[in-house]
Amino acid sequence: MSAHSPLAGMIMADSWPMARVLAGASAVPVGHAIDLAYMFGEEDDARHDALLTETRRQLGGCVAAVEMALRLSLAHAPAVATALDAAPASIAWPVLRAQPTLISPPLMAHMRMRAAVALMLRQYGQGDLEQMGDASDERLPSAADPDLGAAVAALALAEGRWLMPGGEDQPIRPDLPAELFADLLWTVAACLANAVQRATPDDEGAVFAAFDRSSWAVLADHDEGANPIAQADRLVRQLGEATDDPSLIGIALDQRRFLLFCALAARRLRLPTTELIAILLLGPVRQVAALCRALGGSDADYRLLLLTLRPVRPSLTDAAIVAAAERYAGLRQSDADAAVTALRTPVAFRTRLDHLRGVSPA
Fold it and tell me: Distances in Å between the alpha carbon of 138 and those of 132, 172, 265, 302, 330?
């Protein structure tokens, strides 16, 4: 089957929430189409679980914030601003809900990872400033540290922004990586421009010019370093040689400093922190096992890690953890190191190699 097959005949005949997503979307990868269908399915769908709900919250909140920034930036074009003032207060999010294929696969993947982090911090626990200021282990940075206190506080505040309560249309700071922010920005700008063009069909050139100018202005003001993952990486860099302490990773996990734990582990394994987080929260369990073994984790450490990940991995039942722990006991250090080495290569290389292995004769 083609990776870009529309699957229209087979899926639309079933009860899947696919018909609206697949209409006119034959170039959308199958996996992405399925993600979109379940994410924007019926509100009472039993599969609309916590991760889907939080992903919509994160995506909708970022869309709302970008739309607000664009509306404010369009003050230099009174005619366009007036047309938007006459339109509904929220334009982009309803459009994206109706046309979810406007959301790119990389943006969706980032929002799912961001939602998983938020769920993890909310259910597993977020190390707040008071706790960080009175750390039970002096090897961890605290808010009272004269050198690292500002970085610790910045991390806690950034985590708090991702945890802010609210509905899908409540703005959240869109502290995405630059390329994903640009993706989201131009998508929202297109939604707004389409609404303005419908209201003022004779001013198409002015509409293009206005949105081009405002979009670049909003893009120039973007700070991708404000998100909590970047803040955790910054804190680890400031720790310097202290990160060489092999016990620090376990201490961070024990004290519910999840993003600090991830940043420390990523530094040790020479992986991007975002990729390590995505594996821990959303990736195959075998990759979680490889990461743990490559870090020198014991059988008990692996069981503790799986228990920690339960808030975002409901499939990790007691029986599943027992079975995973048995497999982990047979995982060799050399095999884990090889798996992590593979993870250091570009995603494009790995996916194409996996494809070739799957279609090539043995």
Answer: 10, 34, 19, 25, 35
Give 27's contacts (C-beta < 8 A, 6+ positions apart): 4
The runs of H, that is alpha helices, within the chain are 8-12, 19-22, 30-39, 50-73, 78-86, 92-98, 105-124, 129-133, 149-162, 178-199, 204-220, 228-239, 248-254, 258-269, 273-282, 285-294, 299-308, 318-329, 333-343, 347-359
* pLDDT tens column, 4-19: 333 333 333 343 344 4
The per-residue pLDDT for 30 is 57
> pLDDT, tens digit, for every residue of 177-231?
999 999 999 999 999 999 999 888 777 789 999 999 999 999 999 999 999 999 9
Q: What is the pTM of this model?
A: 0.81
Distance between CA atoms of 230 and 341, rounded to whole angstroms?
A: 23
**What is the total residue count of the chain?**
362
- d(Cα 28, Cα 22) in Å, to the nearest integer? 8
